[in-house]
Design a protein that fits this description.
Helices cover 70% and strands 0% of the residues. The longest helix has 24 residues. The relative contact order is 0.20. It is built from four helices and no strands.
Amino acid sequence: MRRFSDFYSFYVSQHQHPMCRALHYVGSSLVLLFIALAISLGNVCLLLLLPIVGYAPAWLGHYVFEHNRPATFTHPIYSFLAD
């Protein structure tokens, strides 16, 4: 997929289960929380946890509820933008 608009329709089709979408929301919210904590506490080490707290819930949603492979593995930039 060369264009984001082409990717996005595929991305949406891979997130049909409400629990998968909820877990993506949880992961994205945790990323924002950890960024805020890192800034407010002045602890840049918290930023190292961003990939874990962001992707772990989302990937769990794919494996447990959607039964598909996260687009992060094949299209990491587009996947990040779509979230």
